[in-house]
Amino acid sequence: MRIFDPHIHMTSRTTDDYEAMHAAGVRAVVEPAFWLGQPRTSPASFFDYFDALLGWEPFRAAQYGIAHHCTIALNPKEANDPRCVPVLDELPRYLVKDHVVAVGEIGYDSMTPAEDTALAVQLQLAAEYALPALVHTPHRDKLAGLRRTLDVVRESALPPDHVLIDHLNETTVKEAKDGGCWLGFSVYPDTKMDEERMVAVLREYGPEKVLVNSAADWGKSDPLKTRKVADALLKAGFTEDDVDRVLWRNPVAFYGLSGRLDLDVADTDATHEGNSILRGIPKPRTGASTAETGLRPGAQDDSQAGAQAGPQSSPTTTEA
Ligand SMILES: [Zn+2]
Predict the structure, then answer these.
(1) From 104, 239, 285, 291, which residue has the greatest number of CB atoms within 10 Å?
(2) Which domains, from first to last, does the chain contain?
(3) Compositional bias (Low complexity) spans (predicted)?
């Protein structure tokens, strides 16, 4: 099984998560720029974060055989902070980068006038830079938030089939689908969608344009939820082709609209700007096998002592 998690905040996760995700079948992720929990106080704080999403995090993911791309934006919550809003002027220089596959996550949090402006401006940027957009819908007043989001999308230059509306549930899926958008579902441990509800939604609406993500971040969340949904779908009688469509081909098609999706992580450097994820002295890696996707097999812990070894631990190791 091959899995693409189209919305996960790996910056907040550990190498153990990457290892478990690879073992569960995850071979690709997209990490949307978002709120860090702790408010930012200046645009410069965003720039260091964006650079990490473009440099360090893809490097870390590649060590575990996972292709990493990101989406860049001013997130809905911080769109309300005048200290942060000037970051909008600097987004264009990030939107031209190879690993940026969408503008996002944008959308509504509290549905304020400042959020209206940031959403409209960033949908326009997506149209100008020929990128799709990942649009977050609010956790409160979901249906009202969705309707307002769809109105702003309709008024924008970006066609709805370049828009992924995320955090949908049973109350919002129909209108988002009727609006012509891609349909994203975040599956969390306790709140929002769970595996069984996801099965029911797919039974009712079918797999077309549906994406499932873990949205795992610094809060209570589970980076293996994509696999758990896949297993629930198979158990409920969906075919492997259905599962591959929802968990792989749909996210590939959506982010492929950017023209920048590169799912090959074969050429992995052992260091990023001279730094590695290792502790101690690297030793050569042995016994690597090729996964079904042809991608790197990722973290195989060949160090019971835990101190030295990592998956691509030696700068001098070369592999087919
Ligand atoms: Zn998110």
Answers:
(1) 104
(2) 3-256 (3.20.20.140)
(3) 297-320
